[in-house]
Amino acid sequence: MLSKKMEKELNEQINREMYSAYLYMSMSSHSNSIGLTGFANWFMVQYNEEMEHAMKIYDYVNSQGGKVKLMAIDEPLSDFKNPMDMFQKTLKHEQFITKCINELVDLSINEKDHATQIFLQWFVTEQIEEEGNDNDIISKLELAGSKGNGLFMIDKELSIRVYNPPVKEKN
Ligand code: FEO
Predict the structure, then answer these.
(1) 156: CB partners within 8 A, 6+ apart
(2) What does pTM read for this prediction?
């Protein structure tokens, strides 16, 4: 069972994951508009992953007898200077999400809510991967450059990312 405080904070996190999806959808659209279809693909996969994160928390709140309260999603940024700008903003946003997840874990520890603490471990691991991916791409953009052949190569690499939906366990 969730405390009212935990229910509220998990609902806030659902909203943040939905905003993340919205932000990456916006970056995908921006990438398409400047001809970077590989970047557009990468951000669309990221959009799908963020929706999956939101639904994971949605299902968890429901499974614990809580109630999901959906809130308005802020308008995301829609203009970016260049691909590096998009990935720097992505990394900064993910660092913020990591901080929020850590605060949720702290709350679960304070409340001795072991179920939620275990549930959140998946997100702790996921954030390590997400920040790692962003740092990798930023390094590549630094090395290969933000235009010309280097950018073309990175765009090609990002075009192969595929979204793998989670496999639902059968009861
Ligand atoms: Fe759902 Fe990118 O963290």
Answers:
(1) 38
(2) 0.96
CA gap 35, 144 in Å, rounded: 18
Burial of 137: CB neighbours in 10 Å, binned 0-12, 13-18, 19+: buried
Lowest mean pLDDT among 24-33, 104-113, 140-149: 140-149
Query: Which residue has the least CA distance to atom 1 on ligand 1?
Result: 50
Residues near 165 by Cβ (< 8 Å), separated by ≥ 6?
48, 52
The domain locations on the chain are 4-159
Q: Which of 115, 96, 102, 126 is CA-nearest to residue 20?
A: 96
How far is the centre of ligand 1, averaged over its atoms, from the C-alpha of 126 (Å)?
8
Q: What is the pLDDT at residue 171?
A: 55
**CATH 1.20.1260.10 is the classification of domain 4-159:** yes
Query: Among the atoms of ligand 1, which is closest to the Cα of residue 17?
Result: 1
